[in-house]
Amino acid sequence: MIPEAREVHLSRKDRKVLEACCRSPVTLQRDLKRARIVLLAADGRSTRSIANQPRIVSLWRHRYADHGLEGLQDKPRPGKQPIYTKTTDKRILKLLDKPPPQGFARWTGPLLAEALGDVDVQYVWRFLRSHKIDLVARKSWCESNDPNFTAKAADVVGLYVAPPAKAIVLCVDEKPSIQALERAQGYLKLPNGRALTGQSHDYKRHGTTTLFAALEVATGKIIATHSKRRRRVEFLDFMNSVTAAFPNRKLHVILDNLNTHKKNEDWLKAHPNVQFHFTPTSASWLNQVEVWFSILQGQSLSGTSFTSLKQLQEHIDAYVNAYNDRAEPFVWTKKKVRQRRFKGRRITQL
C-alpha cells in the first residue's frame, strides 16, 4: 500500500538549490532523480504522474517534507561488520611481547597467524606494515654498568662539544688482526645482460696486521701506523709518534678501557702535556675513531684481495692519505631512543 501523498512546499532557497542541481552536468543520477521528484511534487503533481514507481516518489516526498534538503541524502548504512578489530591488533602486539615458539629465533607472519588461530596471515602482514614493525631487522646495543657512566660520558662529550682552548683532542684505538686474504675475483654475467662483481669463497692467508690510529677531532684527519702485535709497548710507541706530530701542544687523548691503555703513569709523567680520558665501560662507541674504523672497513677493506701483508699495509696507507685530503670532522647528533626493559633495568641515555 502506497502512503498518502505529502504536500511539498519549497522555499526560494531550496528551489534554487534543486534547480541548480538539475542543470549541473556533474550531478549524480540518483541526486538528479530526487531533485526532480521534489520539484514536480512542489508544482502540485500527483505521485503517480511523477514516475511509474510511486513508492520511490512517495519516499522522497516524505523525506523532504520531514527533513528538507538533508532528507534527500542517503542515510548512513552499517555495512559489513569487519572481521578483525582493534582487539585483534592488541592480540598481535601482546603475542609479539612473548618469546617465539620453541626452536625459532624470531616471530614470522605465518607463526603469528598460526599462534592466533583465527587471523589470516595476510592481515598479520598488513598490520605489521601499518605499524612499521619489521620482524627481521635487528638493532644491537651494549649496556654499560659503569657506576661512573655519566661523569665519564660527560667528560668525553665535553671534549667533542667544547674542546679546551689551544689543545688538541685525539681519539685513539687499535683495529687488530686485519687479515691479508687473497681471493679469486671477477664478475658473473647473467642471461639478462646484467654483470655482478664478486669473489670466491676460498682464500689464502698472508698474515695479519694491527692498525693503530689517532683521529684529530677538530679536523677529522688520521694518524695511523701498523704493528705486528697489540701490546702495551706497541701502544706507547704509537703514542710517542703521536706526541711527536704535535710538539709543544696540550693533548687530550680519548681511549677505551683496554688494559694496555691503562696503568701508564710512568709514560704520562714523562709527557706532562698529554692527558688520557677513558670512555665508560662497554661504551667504546663514544670514541670517534671507532666510526672511522667502520668507514675504513666499508670503503677500503671489504671485497679486496691481497697477495702479501705488505700489499695490505700499503693499501691502508694509501687510503689514509686519500682520506686525509678530504677529511672533515664528525658531527655528533642525538636521536630519541626507545627500549624495553632489560634485566629489570633501563639502558642509560646520555
Detailed description of the structure:
The protein is an alpha/beta fold. The chain has 12 helices and 5 strands. Strand 2 (195-216) and strand 3 form a beta hairpin. Helix 1 (12-23) crosses helix 2 (29-42) and helix 2 crosses helix 4. It is elongated, with a radius of gyration of 38 Å.
Summarize the structure.
The chain has 350 residues and is α/β, with parallel strands linked by helices.
Salient structural properties:
alpha/beta; elongated; 350 residues; 5-stranded mixed sheet; single chain; disordered C terminus; 18% strand
* Main beta-sheet strand count, sense and barrel state: 5 strands, mixed
Radius of gyration: 38 Å
N-end to C-end Cα span: 79 Å
**Helix count from the secondary structure assignment:** 12
Q: Compute the number of strand runs.
A: 5
With strands numbered from the N-terminus, the spatial order across the biggest sheet is 3-2-1-4-5
Give the SSE string: HHHHHHHHEEEHEHEHH
Q: Could you say which overall geometry the principal axes of the C-alpha atoms support?
A: elongated
Q: What's the pLDDT, averaged over the residues?
A: 86
Approximate helicity band: 25-40%
Low-pLDDT stretches: 346-350
Query: What is the oligomer described by this structure?
Result: single chain
Strand content: 15-25%
